[in-house]
Amino acid sequence: MAALTSSIIGSRPLAAPVAAPARLRSPAARSAVVAQAARPLWLPGSNPPAHLDGSLPGDFGWDPLGLGADPDRLKWFAESERVHCRWAMLAVAGILVQEIVRPDVFWYDAAVKVDIGGPEKILGLVAFELFAMHWVEVKRGQDFNNPGSQDQDPIFSNYRLPKHEVGYPGGIFAPFIPGDLAELKVKEIKNGRLAMLAFVGFVMAAQVTGLGPLAALGQHLSDPISTTIFSKAAVIPGQAFGPTCQIPPVTPYGGINIPTPCVLPGLWP
C-alpha cells in the first residue's frame, strides 16, 4: 500500500501552493488588502495620479491637469483648501442664521444697513481689517514655510502651542476633539467643499432672485415646476435668455459708492 501511494504521488506533479482564504490570513494582511481596495475615488476603478496616494484628507484621486505633481505646490493647495473650507463654512452658517433670525434683512446688503458714520470712519475700519488680516495671513505663511516658528506667543512668551501638524494647531484652538482626528479631517474637507459650493449658490440665487437662500428655496418649493434654473434662463442656437440682475451695480454707503456688480456680467442681458 505504501509503495502504491508513493508511486501515485511520484507520478503526478505537485500543485502550486494555494493562497490561504481571507479568513485565515493574518489581521495585518487582511486590513492592508481591505484598505487598498476600499479607497474611495472620484471615478471608481480609475487609476489615481502617483502624487495622490490617499494620504491627504479628502483625496479622491482627482487632478486631471496634474497641478499637484509638485510636492511643495500640493502642500500649499491642501493648506489653501483648508482655509477656504473654514471660511466658507463660517460664511454659510452666518448667512443661514442671519436669515432665520432676521428674515426681513437681505444678507447680500446687510452690512450697509448698519450706519457707522461718515466715510472717514468707514475707511478707518477697512484699513484696520486689512492690517489685521494681513498680519494673520503673514503669520500663517511663516508657519507653513517654517513649521513651529509661530507656536510661541510673541507678547506673552510663557504661552506656547503644543507640537502640531501645519493647519491643525490643536491646543487651545481644539481643546476637545470628539472622535478620531483622521476621520474628522476628512469630514471637515467634505463639509468645507459642500460649503464652498453652497456659498456660490447663495450668491447666484441672490443675484437672480434678490432673495436669501431660504426665501429662494421656499419660492422653489411653492412652485417647483415653474421656479427652476431652467425657467430663469434658456439658451437656444443664436440666442440666450437670462434673468435680470437683481443687484444694483453701485451701493452707496456712508458717502462712498461701492461697486457691487453681478458675477460674470457678460452672462446678464
Automatic annotation (TrEMBL):
Its main location: plastid. Chlorophyll a 4 binds at H220. The light-harvesting complex (LHC) functions as a light receptor, it captures and delivers excitation energy to photosystems with which it is closely associated. It comes from Elliptochloris bilobata. Keywords: Chlorophyll, Chloroplast, Chromophore, Photosynthesis, Photosystem I, Photosystem II, Plastid, Thylakoid. One of its GO terms (cellular component) is photosystem II. GO terms for molecular function: chlorophyll binding. Chlorophyll a 1 binds at W62, E81, H84, K187, E188, N191, R193. One of its GO terms (biological process) is photosynthesis, light harvesting. InterPro entries: Chloro_AB-bd_pln, Chloroa_b-bind. Chlorophyll b binds at R86, V126, L161. Belongs to the light-harvesting chlorophyll a/b-binding (LHC) protein family. It comes from the Eukaryota. This is Chlorophyll a-b binding protein, chloroplastic. It is found in: Plastid, Chloroplast thylakoid membrane.
